[in-house]
Write a structure and sequence with these properties.
The chain is mostly helical and 414 residues long. The protein has 2 domains: 2-32 and 188-410, no CATH class; 101-172, no CATH class. It is 47% helix and 1% strand. Helix 12 runs antiparallel to helix 14 and helix 14 (315-332) packs across helix 17 (382-388).
Length: 414
């Protein structure tokens, strides 16, 4: 979670340069995978994640002498009075160096609420002054929200002007990069150019403000696969499944079942060589395929099929259609700051973060996974975007009713 938080801050702050690598297959979800024995997997998972010493599983295996390692540990703990160092403290210090200080007011209050951090972190200039302090600058679109100052400090980064692309020119660079202009080139936009552009091309003619034009609803694609183009008829059918899906997740504890199976899937993937980050990012990149995967693992196929079958869907083609609709919706409604960031990342501009910010090899691997996932989270084409336009407002309302997630799977990120 820490590395994900740092990457968000970096993405909204600074550009760099490199080549884009195609890691799309890392985030694929195999809907035809053989499902392991769930009862055995639960047993292995419980054992692997238990703090119980399984060497003492049976009474006749209890050793005659006290465990020497445990004896040494409690003896040291009882005789020494000192704070137990947080193992992530040095990494956290490096992370704070990588982030522009203009973001400290949105991070510091959260750090002051974390238990176990020493003065090395909390007394850092710029962090120390933020204790119990609401940020002075927040995004314009957030100012009129009642009692916004009462939100959790963990959410402060989402109300920063930088997160919404406001005041980007005021961002300062970390001192680490001050002397590397060739590595971190400035991107400057002349205000006069923007005003002239807006006069010639009105906002209502493009982007998310574009007025939907009446069009043919198109051919309904039954048995769609991952490459099938999206039509408005497909979108209309998909929107029709929302009410039935809402009933499905509320019936007989189905939502809890899907949430509880998620740790088992991630554990099983890691046992089969899938990195922990990839297992999580699959849900972000392809949420609907992840939902159907969890439905199959929990043996709820028949009930889910009844929910989507009334609109001509099977399980797999609902998943593929849903993911294409969601990705097109994400792109059509994404903030302007995200548009610029996505364009830069498609060209690989952010890979130079890995060198000047002193990431170690493990952190470089994690950052690459997250940067690539960011691209594929918004992977769509103009055909799919045009297909959702007539249903954009209805999709927005339905997704908000679901609280932007379905049974623990995030459909739309903040």
């Amino acid at each position: 979670m820490r590395i994900w938080f740092v990457i968000i801050c970096l993405l909204i702050a600074l550009p760099a340069q490199a080549q884009l690598k195609d890691y799309a297959h890392f985030y694929n979800v195999d809907l035809e995978e053989p499902i392991p024995q769930i009862w055995r997997l639960k047993k292995d998972y419980a054992k692997a994640n238990s703090r119980y010493n399984w060497n003492y599983d049976f009474s006749w295996r209890i050793p005659t002498t006290f465990d020497s390692g445990f004896k040494k540990q409690i003896k040291t703990f009882g005789s020494v009075e000192k704070r137990i160092d947080n193992p992530d403290e040095e990494s956290l210090l490096r992370d704070l160096q990588r982030i522009p200080r203009s973001l400290y007011p949105y991070i510091g209050p959260m750090l002051h609420r974390m238990r176990g951090l020493s003065g090395k972190i909390l007394d850092l200039p710029g962090i120390k002054e933020t204790k119990n302090k609401f940020p002075e600058r927040i995004a314009d679109r957030m100012r009129n929200i009642p009692n916004i100052e009462k939100i959790s400090p963990e959410l402060y980064v989402y109300i920063s002007p930088q997160f919404w692309g406001e005041g980007m020119n005021s961002l300062e660079r970390p001192s680490l990069l001050q002397n590397q202009p060739e590595t971190m080139p400035d991107i400057r936009i002349k205000p006069d150019f923007i005003r002239e552009l807006m006069n010639k091309v009105k906002a209502s003619d493009f982007g998310q403000d574009k007025n939907p034009q009446p069009a043919e609803i198109g051919f309904r694609h039954f048995n769609a696969d991952i490459n099938t183009p999206l039509s408005s008829a497909d979108v209309r059918a998909f929107v029709g499944t929302f009410d039935a899906l809402d009933k499905f997740r509320k019936h007989n504890g189905n939502e809890l079942k899907l949430i509880m199976i998620d740790p088992l899937i991630q554990y099983w993937e890691q046992q089969n060589g899938v990195p922990e980050e990839i297992s999580f990012l699959k849900q972000v990149v392809n949420p609907c395929q992840t939902i159907v995967r969890k439905v199959k693992w929990t043996n709820l196929q028949d009930e889910f099929q009844q929910a989507v079958g009334a609109y001509g869907f099977g399980l797999n083609d609902w998943a593929y259609t849903c993911d294409k609709v969601i990705k097109a919706y994400r792109v059509h409604n994404m903030p302007q700051a995200y548009v610029s960031t996505l364009k830069l990342q498609r060209k690989g501009y952010y890979y130079k973060f890995l060198d000047p910010y002193l990431f170690d090899d493990e952190e470089k691997r994690q950052v690459r996974y997250f940067l690539e996932a960011f691209v594929w989270t918004y992977d769509t084409d103009m055909n799919n975007i045009e297909a959702i336009l007539p249903y954009n407002q209805e999709l927005r309302e339905k997704l908000y009713d679901l609280d932007m997630h379905f049974a623990g799977t995030p459909i739309i990120l903040p």
